[in-house]
Write a structure and sequence with these properties.
Largest sheet: 9 strands, mixed
Number of strands: 15
Order of helices and strands: EHEHEHHEEEHEEHHEHEEHEHEEHHHHE
Radius of gyration: 20 Å
Helix content: 25-40%
Shape: globular
Structural class: alpha/beta
Number of helices: 14
Strand content: 15-25%
């Protein structure tokens, strides 16, 4: 696979020119208008940020993208799938409320929010994974499957498990339904924290495997009967049910790439990433620590592997912010330096595996040409 083009611009603007206008110019130069949007449903896959987290992308950037897509004839909607873990985005009602509170609505963004895997994270469909080695099928949100075009709009940031969150994580992990996320994380099954269980039996009503009993007065999941669908997690309003341990990080990273390939397979797709407010951990946290790196700029590409590689390279070359998690780690006398801002931020992550496997299965190329605008 030859070099892919990744287009880049920093956040500098002239008086009278907004960053939204500059972002639209970047997308046009990157060739987004080569896609036939006329009358097509366009999924803008993004992350609305957990309640209490302030580092997610501002709605203003989303509106710039949505307005351009409408100008090109498309019908954009914002979307994400429900989360596997307990929190403010584990069902569509809470998720939509979360999006509203964090500023995402039809006025601020110019389009509507649709939760891709439905009310309880079960509106899903299995699709084949092209060249899949870890997953032969991906279980994804139905709205992403129904969309004609996929646009990834990512807040590029640090991540405690995958090193960073960019285009591939945004689509691959974010686009999986609850069962899909379960498959990526551990091929496993949830468990109950007895001290948090209120014995309301709502989880048992949702279980399609008759795997939940109350012989001890608290919910107990029979691991032999459980199919790992994750419906009980969404059903528990007391956050007593959680997934079990994660699989090896290499496996997780490779599965994310395969899920991304499954979601964009056979559809036009385009990828946008903004390196700003680079928090040390995921926007799924109900808080965000100080940025570990300075704001760098905006990126656009047709290639999800190339844009992630370009963003990673820019972050690796950036000077760490001293008053941050990364800066604190590097200041420790006994710290084993990796000379890698992702590894020094969260040791033991395996971020390179995501890009290597994505390239291996034909999702994109790590070899890119950076075009500065």
């Amino acid at each position: 696979m030859g070099k892919s083009k990744v287009y880049f611009t920093d956040f500098r603007t002239h008086i009278g020119v907004s960053q939204g206008v500059k972002l639209q110019k970047l997308l046009r130069v990157a060739g987004i208008d080569k896609i036939d949007f006329e009358g097509k449903f366009v999924a803008i896959k993004m992350h609305f940020g957990e309640l209490g987290n302030f580092s997610y992308l501002r709605p203003n950037y989303v509106k710039a993208v949505a307005d351009l897509i409408k100008e090109l004839g498309g019908k954009p909607f914002l979307t994400d799938c429900n989360t596997l873990y307990p929190g403010s985005r584990k069902n569509a009602v809470d998720h939509l409320y979360n999006a509203e509170v964090n500023g995402f609505n039809s006025v601020t963004t110019g389009c509507y929010v649709i939760i891709a895997d439905g009310l309880k994270g079960t509106d899903e469909i299995s699709v084949p994974v092209p060249n899949g080695e870890y997953c032969k099928e991906a279980i994804i949100g139905h709205a992403l499957y129904d969309a004609d075009i996929i646009i990834s709009l990512s807040h590029f940031k640090g991540h405690e498990m995958t090193g960073f969150g960019g285009a591939i994580k945004n689509i691959g992990m974010g686009g999986g339904s609850r069962a899909g996320k379960m498959m990526q994380h551990n091929d496993g099954k949830p468990s109950v924290e007895p001290s948090m269980c209120r014995s309301c039996k709502q989880c048992a009503k949702e279980c399609g495997s008759d795997a939940i009993s109350y012989e001890t007065g608290k919910a107990v999941i029979n691991q032999d009967l459980c199919k790992g669908c994750g419906r009980c997690i969404g059903a528990c309003v007391f956050d007593a049910i959680h997934p079990n341990n994660d699989s090896a990080l290499e496996s997780l990273c490779c599965k994310m790439a395969e899920y991304t390939a499954a979601i964009v397979n056979g559809k036009p797709s385009f990828h946008i990433s903004l390196i700003m407010d680079v928090s040390p951990n995921c926007d799924c946290h109900g808080e965000n620590d100080a940025p570990i790196l300075p704001n760098i700029g905006m990126f656009a590409s047709f290639d999800p592997v190339a844009i992630d590689q370009a963003c990673a390279d820019m972050c690796l070359a950036a000077e760490p912010v001293r008053n941050s998690q990364l800066g604190d780690n590097l200041a420790k006398m006994d710290w084993h330096r990796h000379d890698d801002n992702f590894l020094d931020n969260n040791p033991n992550v395996k971020w390179k595996e995501t890009l290597a496997h994505g390239e291996k299965i034909g999702l994109g190329s790590r070899d890119y040409e950076l075009v500065k605008i």
